[in-house]
Specification:
five-stranded mixed β-sheet; globular
């Protein structure tokens, strides 16, 4: 009986609770509120409607107020007004709704550390590149789309190699030896999956966080800025399918140095150097000098000649006459005999043989949709990108799946999975590679072996190539003998396959209103397998590896990141407060294994270690293991969306330091004041928004690699016994670089938000700068890390955008950003500045760089050019023992001087977008002004032949070199065996300024009335061109390849991409 009564009570209680829940679910209330604009002025006639209920609708009265009765709990309000952005938000009993001008950026979302904010409430410094700008660019990785788009961000991205990735710096340089790359965060977690494994089509926005208020919560890893990549979200509603297909070509940007490319002219100029040497260097008569110079011209390289006689002249006649010009009876092409066989020597156009117009194909499909309970996003991407050089390409397949599920009112879970499969074929970009050969070898050498009739000969591997080593025709090329990249790139293998898996999961628990507990984790695995072979048939490879060599490499990156976050936000009156408390743990592991074997059984069909018989070498390299852990807090407050304040603190630990120095404390605080919300600003109707902001904070930098606080040893074989050799002396006292960061500025919007922008001042000071200090050779080890000094970066950023024209069918926008900054080393440890003082700046030199107090990092340090002597010799300055400045024509006697900074005076980007009657057009530029770069290519082209080193490319400027008839020239005499003419000095420093046309995009969106008839929502047809052209101080010189002003003629040529495509949405 008692049991029955208990059952009845339980049933009654359950029914009572269910009825109460139903009653609560059906609870209604009246919502009242006022609608205002950014300045606080009330808006009359705004439409206020309950989302999903067309009957629940009203409009604001003459005071901007509204009332809606019988609003269900959980309902959302939609407020719309002409010229304003539509507002959608949860209905509350009392509301104050601020509508934003259609042109305004105030409601733009800024992705911040562990969350996001509207720009109107953001106290820090950030630059945002949205998906529209990313979609307009044809890039392999999303980071390349930042160039010229974000103030304060410098990008080095001039290599045209398929699969190449850029280098990035945010607001200057902060260290001598520690890493300076920004932290990359994808969907809230550190990203270790490789930039090329992230499909740009999946990206919704890229936000660059630049000041301490924005980045301090990342503590140990935020000192160099943080780049937040947010992938596209799932959307509520019916399923939407988007298909984007584009096809195009890659071609070279033909901006070459003005070199002497005509074989006739090249022979004449080369002869001139030999003639001057015979005449002035050896004292021969003009007639004798003519005879001897002609002999030397076609002599082997060991005698200073070109090695290849490519012209035929009648018997008894000189190739070059006494007037220095080619014999008019000479004909191009010559038949020679070697080992009883006759061959034709004829120069080839190596560039036309090396390059092609590569094809680019890209397809992206995504599907998104869902209900209020569950949303999903699925995408599939494919890219096939051929390089402009043969045997270089990049192919990628990406898959992404995202899902969000509201399991309970108080519980939301989700996942984000990403898979990428990439294949690379690369060619060497070094001093033995194709590009160095094309840029530095004279235009007189054959690429092929030809028979007596001039036909290209063949062997078992196809056409026969000339390796310049005399093996077939008996002639030896004095420059880069024993190689021919045209064939070697085809025969050698240098490929890799990369598989990347990334899995992210989260759970949001909301036990109370305003309280959210987030648990999330990310696991990333990035595996790479590479195969490299060297052909055994020809040239140097035949000598070194006569049976072939195969090398296989396996790299694996494994990382995971776990976060536990507690968010609380609360409104009370005009006050709004948000609190964040969190913990993060990150672990990174990298392993690399490799092995190589000789004696390949079948070179072309079995390029595996099992297919070779003799072990050559094995090893592990670059293995690392890193952990960091942090506890953090952030508090944010605003009063009436007018006054804003933020405070953050993080305590971080890094495995890269000794346990006694492992923990560091980092903090930030910031504030903002929206002045235009003050009553006294109401008369200024043209000023829609003005917000002052400032922040200060500290971040850390531990990016120096692992185990530098411990002594590390190399294991060596000592008489077949294990031996240990000290490699690096550990320093247990090293600790964090600390970055002190101050930022102040203002955001503004004028003239109905037609003109928008921000101006900011930043000051970054790095203290306890980490630097590797080399030990003397007698110490028996390389050196040790230490905290050795301080460095500052201070500058100003300007970011402006304007809506020039906006009507129903036409809109025209322009944008420009500019950054100027000054870098300075302000303190160095005594051990580093004990031996050198330059112009009152104590410090040390490393190669052609000076690191000294009072000067910027990477200051140029080299002899200064003093012009030409009366005899035409190059001269340089030196400082005598009594301090007197003098000149010398002996390069070894020249003094070294501080010769200027490579850092630009101003850099940024600008562009414009025009939309009219369905057409859209956009164009964007990137620029850099000032700073000095060293033009090593030009320096090499200006050097005369010397010793056995002949046959190099020659620049046309040597035609204006000093001579008896041209005594006022500042270019030294052109004479054989005078190598110091092109010796390193400030003569070859040149302005690093450039203007780069980054992107042009033209499209047409078909009218919806047309496309709806075939079941589509949207159709856009477009043409796009990327990396279109660039301009620099000297034709051929590309200063975009280095932050520090260096240059190279061996890197992959810059590449232009032109494509056409169509995007369908249905």
């Amino acid at each position: 009986m008692t049991s029955l009564m208990n059952m009845k009570r339980l049933l009654f209680s359950t029914l009572f609770m269910l009825s109460a829940l139903v009653s609560f679910a059906q609870q209604v209330f009246t919502t009242k509120g006022v609608v205002v604009d950014e300045t606080g002025e009330t808006i009359i006639g705004a439409t206020v409607q309950v989302v999903g209920d067309s009957k629940m609708i009203t409009a604001t009265d003459t005071d901007g107020k509204f009332t809606l009765a019988n609003v269900k709990s959980g309902a959302k309000l939609e407020v719309s007004y002409v010229g304003m952005k539509t507002f959608i938000g949860p209905a509350k009993p009392t509301m104050k709704i601020t509508m934003i001008n259609d042109n305004s950026a105030l409601d733009e979302v800024v992705v911040t550390a562990f969350g996001e904010q509207k720009r109107s409430a953001f106290t820090g410094s950030a630059a945002i590149v949205d998906s529209k700008k990313i979609e307009h660019k044809q890039v392999n990785n999303v980071m390349s789309s930042l160039k010229g788009e974000a103030a304060g961000v410098q990008i080095v991205d001039n290599s045209g190699e398929p699969g190449a990735t850029p280098s990035i710096r945010v607001r200057g340089f902060s260290s001598i030896s520690a890493g300076q790359s920004p932290l990359i965060i994808v969907d809230g977690a550190p990203y270790d999956g490789g930039w090329n494994n992230l499909n740009p089509a999946d990206v919704a926005s890229v936000t660059v966080l630049k000041d301490a208020s924005s980045t301090a919560l990342y503590g140990a890893r935020g000192a160099n800025g943080v780049i937040m990549v947010t992938t596209k979200h799932a959307q509520v509603g019916n399923a939407h399918i988007s298909v984007d297909m584009r096809w195009g070509t890659n071609s070279r940007i033909k901006r070459y140095y003005e070199t002497i490319d005509d074989p006739v002219k090249y022979y004449e100029v080369y002869y001139n150097a030999l003639y001057n040497y015979q005449l002035k260097g050896l004292g021969l008569t003009p007639a004798q000098a003519t005879i001897e110079a002609n002999k030397q011209l076609v002599a082997p390289g060991a005698a200073g000649g070109l090695g290849y006689p490519i012209f035929t002249v009648p018997n008894g006649e000189q190739l070059i006459g006494e007037d220095g010009h080619m014999n008019p009876h000479a004909t191009l092409g010559r038949v020679i005999e070697h080992n009883g066989k006759r061959y034709t020597i004829l120069p080839d156009d190596w560039k036309s043989l090396a390059f092609r117009n590569g094809l680019r194909k890209e397809y992206d499909v995504n599907l998104t949709g869902g209900s209020d309970k569950m949303q999903y996003y699925l995408s599939l991407g494919y890219l096939n990108n051929e390089g402009v050089a043969y045997h270089s390409d990049f192919e990628r397949i990406t898959v992404r799946a995202k899902a969000d599920y509201e399991a309970r009112k108080w519980l939301k879970v989700g996942t984000n999975m990403n898979f990428s499969r990439a294949k690379y074929h690369v060619i060497p970009s070094d001093d033995n590679g194709l590009f160095y050969q094309l840029n530095n070898v004279a235009p007189i050498y054959p690429a092929f072996i030809r028979d007596e009739q001039g036909n290209i000969m063949t062997d078992e591997n196809g056409q026969m190539y000339d390796y310049g080593n005399g093996a077939v025709i008996g002639l030896r090329r004095p420059i880069l003998p024993n190689i021919n990249p045209l064939q070697e790139n085809a025969l050698n293998t240098n490929s890799s396959k990369v598989n990347m898996y990334s899995l992210y999961g989260y759970a949001n628990i909301m036990p109370l209103e305003g309280l959210k507990i987030t648990l999330n984790g990310t696991v990333t695995v990035n595996n790479s397998r590479a195969t490299e072979t060297k052909q055994p048939f020809y040239g140097y490879s035949h000598t070194a590896y006569p049976t072939g060599v195969v090398t296989r490499t396996s790299d694996q990156t494994f990382s995971y990141n776990f976060q536990q976050l507690v968010n609380y936000n609360h409104d009370f009156g005009h006050h709004h407060m948000e609190l964040l408390l969190g913990h993060e743990f990150y672990r990174y592991n990298y392993e690399s294994l490799w092995g190589s074997k000789l004696g390949m059984a079948s070179y072309f069909t079995n390029q595996t270690l099992a297919g070779a018989i003799k072990m050559d070498n094995t090893g592990e390299s670059g293995n690392s293991e890193y952990e960091s852990e942090g506890f953090f807090f952030r508090g944010q407050y605003d009063y009436d969306q007018k006054y804003f304040g933020s405070l953050s603190f993080r305590r971080d630990a890094s495995s890269r330091f000794d346990p006694n120095h492992r923990w560091g404390n980092f903090y930030s605080f910031g504030g903002a004041w929206t002045i235009t919300k003050e009553p006294f600003m109401k008369p200024f109707k043209w000023l829609n928004m003005l917000k002052l902001k400032a922040s200060f904070g500290q971040q850390g930098n531990d990016n120096i690699g692992d185990f530098h606080y411990l002594d590390t040893y190399s294991i060596v074989n000592t008489n077949n016994k294990v031996g240990l050799v000290l490699s690096e002396k550990g320093n247990p006292n090293i600790t964090w670089e600390t970055n002190n960061n101050f930022n102040a500025g203002f955001d503004f919007e004028l003239f109905n938000s037609r003109l928008r922008g921000s101006i900011e001042y930043f000051y970054k000071k790095t203290t306890d700068m980490l630097c590797f200090v080399f030990a003397p050779y007698s110490a028996g080890y390389k050196g040790t890390y230490d905290n050795i000094g301080d460095m500052t970066n201070k500058g100003v950023e300007v970011d402006l955008s304007a809506t020039v024209l906006k009507t129903k069918n036409i809109s025209w926008d322009v944008n420009v950003n500019a950054t100027t900054y000054k870098n300075e080393i302000i303190k160095l440890a005594d051990v580093l500045k004990a031996d050198l003082v330059v112009d009152g700046h104590p410090g040390y030199s490393s190669g052609d760089r000076l690191y000294a107090e009072g000067l910027p990092i990477y200051e140029w340090y080299m002899p200064r050019y003093a012009g030409v002597s009366n005899e035409g010799k190059a001269m340089w300055y030196y400082t005598d023992t009594d301090g007197t400045l003098k000149t010398t024509d002996v390069y070894g006697n020249a003094s070294y001087y501080s010769c200027g900074s490579p850092h630009p005076d101003l850099y940024g980007g600008f562009g414009t977008t025009l939309n009219a009657y369905g057409f859209d057009f956009s164009i964007s530029f990137a620029y850099s002004l000032g700073g000095l770069s060293y033009d090593s290519g030009y320096a090499g082209y200006m050097g005369p032949p010397s010793g056995t080193l002949g046959g190099s490319t020659i620049h046309k400027d040597v035609l204006n070199s000093w001579s008896a008839s041209n005594p006022t020239s500042n270019i030294p005499r052109w004479q054989y065996d005078d190598p110091s003419v092109s010796a390193q000095c400030d003569r070859f420093l040149i302005s690093g300024s450039y203007l780069s046309l980054q992107n042009i995009n033209l499209g047409y969106t078909l009218p919806k009335l047309w496309v709806s008839k075939i079941g589509l929502e949207n159709v856009r047809i477009y043409m796009a061109a990327d990396n279109v052209y660039f301009w620099s101080k000297r034709k051929g010189f590309d200063p975009r390849g280095s932050f520090s002003g260096g240059s190279s003629t061996s890197i992959y040529s810059p590449t232009r991409t032109i494509s056409g495509g169509i995007k369908l949405t249905f």
